[in-house]
Amino acid sequence: MKVILNKNTNYDFEKLDSELFLIVGEDKVTAEHIVTKPYSYWKSVFLKVFKNPAFLISLVLIILIIICSMTIALGQYAIPTYPDGPINQAPSSEHWFGIGKMGEDLWNKTWIATRTTLLFTVIIVLIQIVLGIIIGSIWGYNTRFDIAFIEAIRFISIIPQLVLWLFIIFLFSGNRGMWVAVLAVSITNWIGLASLIRFQILLNKSKEFNIASKVLGSKGGKIIRKNILPSILPIIVQSIAFSIPAAIGIDSSLAYLGFGFVSVSDAKSASLGSMLTDLLSGSDWQIAPHLLIVPVVFIGGLSLVFYIVGKIFADSLDPKNHR
User: Fold this and answer.
1) Could you say which residues form the signal peptide (predicted)?
2) What average pLDDT values come out for the chain (323 residues) when binned by 10 residues?
3) Measured distance CA(312)–CA(48) in Å, rounded
4) What number of CA atoms fall less than 13 Å from residue 111's CA on the CB side?
5) Fewer CB within 10 Å of terminal CB in the chain, N or C?
6) Number of domains present in the structure of the chain
7) Is residue 13 part of a domain?
8) What is the DSSP string of 165-176?
9) Is there a contact between 255 and 276 (Cβ–Cβ < 8 Å)?
10) What letters, b where the CB count within 10 A reaches 16 and e where it falls short, cover 142-153?
């Protein structure tokens, strides 16, 4: 039996045949259950990123660059010791990136330089992440250490960052290498991320669920690890997305100032920064523009694809973007 009801309907419900209905009783479990689609946080994150064409293209490029830098020109010199061929030659089928001003094959030299710069970048960023998260978490959660951390950062920051880097590298001028540059940069590189995490923890630690966890006996480390850090993960990844291009830029800046961890005259190795500095120190690139185009494209391209991957991944970590 079908009954259409509206505001003008006058129907006596007592006349309805009770045999047409089935009384199921009270079901508290069903009443409290919210009927919705199944939700998995990490599944939603990866579905969102892998549906983004820019993320996929950038990720494929990063993988290809890493594979090429790890396999091409292994054990070879960046600059031939006894060049006996042409110089400043444009790209060709035999030399894809052309020949440099020292007679070197720019294809091999570029991948050697990329391998060195990527290694430097990964080390710098990993140290920044570890120090930034540990110091920022302790600083933000334990307010009794606030003054000590503030004074330490003031002491470190009183000297301009670049001047401090150059001073540390100059102290080890007799043994200049990648690890000296890593030490110099790592002294200050963690401050930005630590300050960001400290601020976010101050905002989040007074929320009701964190107070409840503390009342129930949870330790501070567990509250930070289980409650606070997952909620601020998108902000951390966003910061790291900027840190990778910045680390690549540090290599170029130090090399340009003559304090790079790879000497311009080093025949065995090279970095993208040393390649760029070597070219800008002369006028050969004006005659053969490909000499400048190759390192600039690699420095700019690496910075761009790492930033795109980090930015899109950070956005996908925000639960507000999942629905």
Assistant:
1) none
2) 56 68 69 65 84 93 93 84 74 86 87 91 91 89 84 86 86 77 89 89 80 79 80 84 86 83 77 84 82 87 90 84 69
3) 9
4) 19
5) N
6) 1
7) no
8) HHHHHHHTGGG-
9) yes
10) eeeeeeebeeeb
Cα–Cα distance for residue pair 243/128, rounded to 1 Å: 9
Question: CA-CA distance, 197 to 203, in Å (whole number)?
Answer: 10
Closest CA to 16 of 24, 5, 25, 27: 5
Determine the Cα–Cα distance for residues 36 and 284; give it in Å rounded to an integer.
Answer: 66
In sequence order, what are the residues at sequence separation of 6 or more whose Cβ sits closer than 8 angstroms to the Cβ of residue 37?
A: none
- Please check whether residue 257 is in contact with residue 280, taking contact to mean a CB–CB distance below 8 angstroms: no
* 13 vs 11: CA distance, rounded Å: 6
- Where residue 166 sits, what CATH number does that domain have? 1.10.3720.10
Q: What whole-number distance in Å separates Cα of residue 255 and Cα of residue 271?
A: 9
For residues 256-295, b (16+ Cβ closer than 10 Å) or e, as one string? eeebbbbbbeeeebbbbbbbbbbbeeeebbeebebbbebb
Residue 284 lies in a domain: yes
**Upper half-sphere CA count for residue 62 (Cβ side, 13 Å):** 16
Distance of CA 219 to CAs 150, 164, 269, Å?
A: 24, 38, 49
Task: Please give the residue range of the domain that contains residue 192.
Answer: 41-77+97-321
Q: Please indicate, yes or no, if residue 162 is contained in any of the structural domains.
A: yes
70 CB contacts (<8 Å, ≥6 apart)? Answer: 115
Ramachandran quadrant class, 258 (left: phi over 0; alpha: psi -120 to 50; beta: rest):
left
